[in-house]
Specification:
Layout (H helix, E strand, L loop, with lengths): L2 E4 L22 E2 L7 E2 L11 E3 L1 H12 L8 H17 L1 H6 L4 H5 E2 L13 H5 L3 E6 L2 E5 L5 E5 L8 E2 L6
Antiparallel strand pairs: 1-2, 1-4, 3-6, 5-9, 6-7, 7-8
Helix pairs in contact: 1-2
Length: 169
């Protein structure tokens, strides 16, 4: 799997806040990410490392930032999804790619019932304002402000599942 290298960006590029969205068109191809078993440490300084992510994720995230909220989402929920995707791209995307998580496993949704079909949701639609605290090759742990943790287990990609950036307005 080809991957691209990029330096993590500073959050708040999305949601029409007046910031410009970074362009991912100048990334260089690098070798496949190494296979990994378990990453349990939280990334504490993502800006100090160069991440390796599939080109599809970088380009898809850029597109996601430019989309209006699809009719299946309230504007506040859509803003939260974009914020969650932005934090994931800055802090965890390289590790998830190294652990061979798929595009749909990270960004997937059902095209017509995106909030109701839990079995079609990737990591990003399930974060819902919480923070990722640990990842492995089979699960992601997220923690809310109240300290409660939720574990999202890796599931096979579903027929008809699409990444968030393919949602129609």
């Amino acid at each position: 799997m080809a991957a691209i290298a990029f330096t993590p960006f500073v959050p708040t590029y999305c949601l029409g806040r007046g910031d410009s969205v970074p362009s991912f068109s100048s990334f260089s191809e690098i070798s496949s990410p190494p296979a990994g078993n378990v990453i349990l440490a939280e990334v504490t300084s993502p800006a100090a490392v160069v991440l390796s992510v599939p080109a599809e994720w970088a380009v898809g995230f850029e597109r996601l930032c430019s989309l209006a909220a699809p009719s299946l989402y309230s504007q506040s929920r859509w803003n939260r999804i974009i914020d969650d995707a932005e934090r994931l791209m800055a802090d965890w995307a390289g590790n998830l790619a190294a652990l061979e998580w798929t595009t749909l496993g990270v960004f997937g949704v059902h095209p017509h019932a995106s909030e109701r079909r839990q079995d079609y949701k990737g990591i990003v639609p399930q974060i819902n304002g919480r923070r990722i605290v640990a990842i492995t090759s089979t699960s992601v742990s997220i923690q809310g402000r109240d300290g409660h943790r939720l574990t999202i287990y890796r599931a096979p990609d579903q027929p008809g599942q699409i990444p968030l950036w393919e949602m129609l307005p």
